[in-house]
Amino acid sequence: MKIVSFNLKCAKSADDNMQKEREPRVAAFLLHHRPASVGFQETEPFWRERLDQVLTGYRRAQPQLMFKNYIYYDPEQVSLINHGVIWLSETPDLPSQGYGSKYFISAGWAVFECADTKRRYAHINTHLDAYNEPIREKEIEMVLDLADRFSAQGLPVVMTGDFNSRKDSVIYEAVMRRGYLDAKYQTEDTEETGTFNGFGKYDPPYMGPIDYFFINPGKFDVARYSVNVTWEGEFMTDHNVIMLQCGIRG
Predict the structure, then answer these.
(1) How many domains does the chain contain in total?
(2) Does this model's pTM top 0.90?
């Protein structure tokens, strides 16, 4: 199975941030690769409306309308067992800004059951504050607390998203300290390419990585980690799209 993390770049209309040019590439890439679940970031309402229409065969796990970190899934590959949203703030059950961030930062989550093996996994998807590391430190602790809840139930857990943090950051260290793994290092078929291209502002190997797949140990067989910059030679977004090919252990 495949899992994708996809920062879309905000767009409030078809003309905003080249959305109308990029939308066909986004859809074509995903419909070609057919990931079981996709964690999107920066999914403005306009983007959500468009994804609901163009991702043929996919469903949205979270019904919320004022939210940006949706998870979409392929019902032919996985069934949705449960889902939810937490706001990375002092009031996690309410849409809210927290810890001094000027943004409404959130994490969406979903528990899926694989159609073929009947094995389940939890997918958590987030986008941490872009400008303030002390704020990100508080946010990542909430994401990790959520991941720990699923891990305690024996579930495989994958965290996707734009963590706005490099490998030498306190955020990355916090994830490692909790015992989670960077999935890209769990396979020999991997890449060191960065994950932010700025629509061509940065040259290969690009800035980053700042987008990750974090997994709990012993729960996944990682076959391949790939960084996808373009579709048919054109940028899909200002972040490189990362994809994980893996199996879920019983």
Answers:
(1) 1
(2) yes
